[in-house]
Write a structure and sequence with these properties.
- By secondary structure, the protein is mostly helical.
- Helices cover 71% and strands 0% of the residues.
- The longest helix is centred in the last third of the chain and has 28 residues, at 205-232.
Length: 287
Amino acid sequence: MKAKLFALGAIALWATLAALGLSLAHVPPFLLTGLALLIGSVVALPLSRFDLRTWKIPLSTLALGVYGLFGFHFLLFMALRHAPAVEANLVNYLWPLLMVVLSPVLLVGVRLRAVHVVASVLGFAGAALAIAGGAGGTASASTQPHETWGYLPALGSAFVWASYSLLCQRVRPFPTAAIGLFGLVSGLLSLLCHVALEPAVALSGSDWWLIAAMGLGPLGAAFFLWDQALKLGDARQIGILSYLTPLASTTLLLLVSQRPFHWNVALAALLIMGAALLASRAETPPA
């Protein structure tokens, strides 16, 4: 039960990302991510009781953390630059499905049952409807040939986050506070990408407040909650539960932007809730 609560906490924080991103749409994405990840790493200090010795982890573990946090955002932003946003976001949300189907490959003693596949496919269908509903019920304009390659980094970002989430359970146990080091290094790499790829901009006082909120929430505390959820729970069940993220994100975005709800958002809720219940009722502890 604790694992589900931690996962729901991370999902609730990630649900605010789109609304915050809408308010910060004028800030270059790598600059935004870099600053938010640096701020998010501060969350690790009280978790470690301000003892940075908790950041003493093997280089292989640090590499895995940077692979997850930086690799995911880098590939996602590349996808959003070169493919329609709605479709790229949908491809990116294959990561909960990949978590489910890759769990027996990357985790020892975990078996994949048919019910997990069915529940995950239902969840992905719900995510697709939620994203389409957030886009006004229509997909983006037809994709130009030069944009189609943008789906590859979108798929790559999905694979990175799914594999990172599972591989964190394969490495030697590390303190959750070490996630702060992952965020610190990933934030610095994002800022380097900003310098190399994006124009310089001046940030206002309100921008800094919103970036701080993003850093402390969806790009900060959410990662720590997610780590705890994965350490305590079943990756298959948490993966299916993660489909609540696009649904909650879309709902909050529609509320904030005062846009009307579409029928597909309600249907998405039914599909995702049904998928979570199906997986929960059929669940057995991993061998």
